[in-house]
Amino acid sequence: MKDRNHVDHAQPHDQQADAAESAQPKFESDPIAKDGIDRRNFLTCMAWAGTGLLWTMAGGVPTSKLFAAGAGAGGGMMGHGHGGSGFSFVQISDSHIGFNKAANQDVTGTLQLALDKINGLPGTPDLLLHTGDISHSSKPAEFDTAQQLIKGAKAGETFYVPGEHDIATDDGQMYMERFGKGTQGRGWYSFNHKGVHFIGLNNCQQVDAMGKLGDDQLSWLKSDLASLSASTPIVVFAHIPLWMVYPDWGWGTPDAAEALTYLKRFGSVTVLNGHIHQVVQKVEGNVAFHTAMSTAFPQPAPGSAPHAGPMVVPAGKLKGVLGITEVRYIARHSHLALVDSSLETT
Hints:
- By secondary structure, this protein is an alpha/beta fold.
- It is built from six helices and 14 strands.
- Strands 7-8-9-10-12-11 form a six-stranded mixed beta sheet, with no helix packed on it.
- Helix 1 (107-119) links the parallel strand 4 and strand 5 (127-130).
- The longest helix is centred in the first third of the chain and has 13 residues, at 107-119.
- Mean pLDDT is 76; it is low at 1-84.
């Protein structure tokens, strides 16, 4: 753990350029406007092969600015302050330390590039969220390497949820020993930070390749949310998407539909996931869904290949399809603005 001075009651933590278009598909459903943005409740950004839109809220009106995700480590993001009780945090995902096949034979190096990107931000993020698949084979050396690298991130504190690769060989025992202390059940938990309620879930106990939360976790979630005001901003993070991105490849969590019924009463809910190694977004009512790029390798767009799996991209293009997500909370409006940035530099 790094700095817990601003966290109310958190337990799990670190103990411690043209990219292939198919690697970053954008899905939108139930659009409010033609561009898919629900301007009443959510601000989203989209990333296209090295560029993105940064959405912010001012006076109740969303505005956007184009930035070059391929800019230098300090210049790719807009400068920002964390005045008042607003703050930013970052998400990384799917580091797959231990993977060494053709899609990326230096996953340690690309994770370090992602951390360098974070360390070059003009403002220090309060939190870093890792949404799973820290390791590729849940081996001690893989976890050791990941932890040592991530400890170098300039962020207030780091939080984890497991991916299926983190629990596959020992039913999650090693993950729980390293990252699960103080959590509930098989690694789920919540904490408050500057007025935002964060919820980390484990949906990697898979059934027929699909994600699963299970009755115990759903019961805990319902209880966790019961005492919160409907005006409380909620951030949920888990590895496998909590919506049905592409069931044929197991990219979804069927019983997450029950979890979402508990979240409907809240005015601002953001769901952050990994697993599919590409940016996909959807806004559904008061809930904004966002999946992140991997720091290790891309996967094909849903249905564009015979099956999911590591995708080899042309030489020199890999960094353009890997990246990080920066999230800003603007306290006055209780909205989150998400910025996806590739690892590519100019």
